[in-house]
Design a protein that fits this description.
The complex is a heterodimer of chains A (228) and B (597).
Chain A lengths: L25 H29 L7 H4 L15 H25 L3 H31 L20 H32 L2 H5 L3 H26 L1
Chain B lengths: L2 H12 L9 H6 L4 H31 L6 H7 L10 H37 L7 H21 L29 H30 L12 H32 L10 E2 L3 E2 L7 H35 L6 H15 L14 H13 L1 H15 L8 H23 L2 H7 L3 H31 L5 H27 L19 H31 L41 E3 L2 E3 L14
Antiparallel strand pairs in B: 1-2, 3-4
Helix pairs in contact in B: 3-5, 3-6, 3-17, 5-6, 5-7, 5-8, 5-9, 5-15, 6-7, 7-8, 8-9, 8-10, 9-10, 9-13, 9-15, 10-12, 12-13, 13-15, 13-16, 15-16, 16-17
Classes of the chains: A mainly alpha (228), B mainly alpha (597).
Chain lengths: 228, 597
């Protein structure tokens, strides 16, 4: 056991059982399996959403529901502009996360710190946007069990449009929030030189996996609620 | 913690030479040693098994003696047994809690929690789990879930009483039944905590098996126990989150006025609901997407342990190692593709139903492969009938008996007649309930010497086995006939139907046997707890003459398992009777003239 070398060396031997099925360290295996597990959680939500939506006669038109943005007056008609900005912010935060992971691989502490700060700002900006959107919809009378919007064909809508919207975007928002907390912890650990001492920035990479997953889920949530 | 840090911390635990300060709390309560965590899971599981078993005795009392009155019942159940007779509400609560507790707390946490924790590091040659801390958390989430569930038994309106599957609207409406009030809230909180526990445990088992194997322990040299526990963990990690999603939607329906599972139906005593657009069937899909893999989460660890115990005690290699492994994999995959066979009478599209029939019946193929491989492992073996071995053989017997009725029930046309009858009760109790319980007993009898450094009493073990095996068949075999005659499950009292009066005697017989079998389990408990402290001491490092690595550790291994270096593995674990040698442990290098297996 004493001949275990560190991660930063390319020939690092994570595992001494002969042939490793995946050439990764155990924490990364755990993270991948966790992400698969979490994908099933979101999958179940989105399939439930699809089941209910397609067994219902009508559904509100997202272009009619999501057409406002902050500081716009009543009756603004800018369909999906705000949510596009939100999505853009989240995807950019994924890019800065990639840069942070890359800086970690280069053992560039400054780069990690800079890009982690950008990623955290991106996450907080996304959450703020979501908070504004929820608040705006709530003011229009939408909430769990309350749906002020009518179906695209003009008929009365069931409450399941808002029920699913708030539950699933809320659950995703909770994931983004957890990601921001994790990223803040990672930033603090970087600043405290924890990873420099360990000789590798694997924790940043694992946090990155989670962050990209949360972004990827948003792509599906966005498609299901705003585009379809 | 980085991998390296973990390895070093393991090293520091591994050497006995430097005294390492252990208080009662750190050794027995907040332990991060996988062996202690396994024991914690086992004891908690046993407490639940006793409670869950006791519940079944109580409701069997009602079914066997519907007209009798037992004043002592009122003294333990209070208002739930006014005048010595169990009330219908209490009956449903007992049935529900019995199911929930036995399925999740005993046969999931108690079984894989115990043996995955205990066997994985010992059999793959690791000092501990990949993350001992997460492992401890896993137990503490399970214990918290247990405590919440226990509390739900004592709330004013009673525990949840809508069946262990918790179908809406019974579970979604507060006013549907007394148990649907705070009892259901606690039930769902407990189950959510349980899902977290199973996730933390499962991730750990997977990562440990993939990454922490000792030198030479390639995947195809793993004992079948480890493969079974690996697939179990994967099943759990991928199916429990779907249940969690289902539960989150259920919580919203209960408390926040949503209509995921509720539509404008009329509920007796509540009236027409104001909800619209939801689907109760949606819940059933989400539930059974976990519910069916759950059956295999319960069965696979038992299968793995039975394979190992059978090979050791037949003094023969397991027959068809790769076939055993392939069938485990096939079962794990098929487990995700058959859930709607629980829903044939929900109005499922008959074509879709027939697809699920096909996939369900396909499970018979890997199951049969396993059965034949067990039988051929026994064939002409030099069998040692230890209590563990007897329970392993009992498992195979029960798995065959219960598996065959699965072919009936998996058939959509037959299922319309048999659905929700005692036939189903008989089927799943034999194939999954009692069989896995037998796997668990086999494991406890077999690995008790490793767990506590002492033997269980054999004579008590034999009595325990024979009474339990005969009793299990006497309890559940007659239920097939009752089910074929149409006797529905979950009914409080059958004596008011003329057509079921003929079963009064039979029901009394079943109830009587159930009580005897329950009493026999107390014999096992006495044996267990007595032997921990006073049992015959193990003097031989390898009492079963087994090949696997856990028997290369000291009789009472400390934290870190091996005092020195971890042994290197040179062969698969089933070299029994090879070249005329009784057994060759895995850490023995391959000899020059040795034949290949």
């Amino acid at each position: 056991m004493s001949n275990v070398t560190t991660a930063s060396t390319k020939e690092a031997k994570w595992w001494n059982g002969g042939k490793s099925p995946f050439d990764v360290e155990y924490g990364k295996v755990m993270m991948w399996y966790f992400l698969m597990s979490d994908a099933f959680t979101f999958g179940a939500f989105l399939i439930a959403y699809g089941t209910v939506r397609f067994s219902t006669n009508g559904w509100p038109n997202p272009n009619e529901v999501f057409k406002s943005y902050p500081f716009a007056g009543e009756g603004t008609n800018a369909p999906l502009v705000f949510v596009s900005i939100m999505t853009f912010i989240l995807i950019i935060s994924s890019v800065t996360m990639v840069l942070a992971v890359h800086a970690g691989k280069m053992m560039d502490k400054k780069g990690v710190v800079r890009n982690m700060i950008f990623t955290i700002i991106g996450g907080i900006a996304f959450l703020s946007c979501q908070a504004w959107e929820w608040n705006h919809l709530h003011h229009e009378g939408a909430w769990w069990g309350m749906n002020p919007f009518i179906n695209a064909d003009g008929t009365a809508s069931t409450t399941n449009f808002t029920n699913f919207f708030f539950t699933i975007t809320g659950f995703h928002g909770f994931h983004v929030f957890s990601g921001v907390v994790i990223n803040i912890i990672m930033l603090i650990m970087t600043l405290l030189n924890k990873f420099e001492q360990r000789g590798h920035y694997l924790m940043i990479e694992k946090a990155g996996l989670y962050w990209h997953f949360v972004d990827l889920v948003w792509v599906f949530v966005f498609t299901c609620f705003y585009l379809l | 913690m980085s991998h390296e840090a973990v390895l070093h911390s393991h090293d520091s635990h591994g050497h006995d030479d430097h005294a390492h300060h252990e208080t009662f709390l750190s050794k027995y309560v907040f332990s991060m040693d996988h062996k202690m965590i396994a024991k914690q899971f086992l004891i908690t599981g046993m407490v639940w098994a006793v409670l869950g078993g006791l519940m079944s005795v109580l409701f069997r009392l009602q079914l066997g003696y519907p007209d009798a009155s037992f004043p002592w019942l009122e003294s333990i159940l209070g208002k739930w047994a006014k005048g010595g007779q169990i009330t219908p509400e209490a009956y449903y609560a007992l049935v529900t809690t019995h199911g929930t507790v036995l399925v999740f707390f005993v046969l999931t946490a108690g079984l894989s929690g115990t043996f995955a924790n205990f066997l994985i590091p010992l059999q793959i040659g690791a000092r501990d789990m990949a993350s001992p801390f997460m492992n401890m958390l896993s137990y503490w989430f399970f214990l918290t879930a247990s405590i919440v569930m226990l509390c739900s038994l004592f709330v004013e309106t009673g525990p949840f009483s809508g069946g262990w599957v918790a179908y809406p609207p019974l579970s979604a409406l507060h006013d549907a039944s007394p148990g649907s009030k705070s009892g259901m809230d606690l039930w769902i909180i407990s189950m959510a905590l349980f899902v977290v526990s199973s996730l933390l445990g499962g991730l750990n088992y997977i990562a440990t098996i993939l990454n922490m194997r000792t030198k030479g322990m390639s995947m195809t040299r793993l004992p079948l126990t480890i493969w079974a526990l690996f697939f179990t963990a994967v099943l759990g990690v991928l199916s429990f989150p779907v249940l969690l999603s289902g539960f989150i939607l259920l919580i919203f329906d209960r408390n926040f006025g949503t209509s995921f599972y509720l539509s404008d139906i009329f509920v007796n005593g509540v009236g027409a609901l104001s909800n619209e657009g939801g689907s109760a069937i949606l819940y059933q899909h989400l539930f059974w997407f976990l519910g069916h893999p759950e059956v295999y989460i319960i069965l696979l660890p038992a299968m793995g342990m039975v394979s190992e115990i059978m090979s050791v005690n037949s003094r023969k290699p397991i027959f068809g190692y790769m076939a055993m492994l392939g069938s485990l994999f096939a079962i794990a995959v098929l487990a995700f593709l058959v859930w709607a066979h629980h829903m044939f009478v929900t109005g499922l599209n008959p074509f879709l139903g027939s697809v699920f029939v096909l996939l369900t019946l396909l499970i018979a193929v890997p199951s049969a492969i396993k059965v034949f491989n067990w039988l051929t492992t026994l064939w002409r073996g030099n069998i040692r009938f230890t209590p563990g071995m007897l329970f392993a053989i009992g498992f195979v017997s029960l798995f065959i008996s219960g598996g065959l009725t699965g072919i009936w029930l998996g058939n959509a046309a037959l299922d319309i007649h048999l659905h929700d009858t005692y036939f189903v009760i008989a089927h799943f109790h034999i194939v999954m309930g009692v069989a896995s319980m037998f796997g668990m007993f086999a494991g406890v009898y077999h690995w008790f010497p490793k767990m506590y450094g002492r033997y269980l009493n054999n004579s008590l073990g034999y009595i325990h086995f024979w009474v339990t095996l005969a009793g299990a068949y006497m309890i559940f075999w007659p239920m097939h006939y009752e089910g074929l005659a149409g006797m529905p499950r979950r009914y409080f009292d059958f004596s008011i139907w003329e057509s079921f009066k003929q079963f009064a005697e039979l029901n009394r017989f079943i109830s009587t046997v159930a009580m005897i079998v329950f009493a026999t389990q107390i014999l096992f408990l006495i044996n267990f707890f007595y032997s921990i402290f006073k049992g015959r001491k193990v003097t031989d490092l390898n009492p079963w003459k087994s090949n696997t690595l856990e028997w290369t550790t000291p009789i009472n291994p400390g934290h870190g398992n091996w005092p020195g270096e971890i042994p290197e593995v040179h062969r698969w674990p089933y070299d029994y009777g090879k070249d005329g040698v009784d057994f060759i442990p895995q850490d023995v290098p391959v000899g020059a003239n040795e034949s290949s297996h």
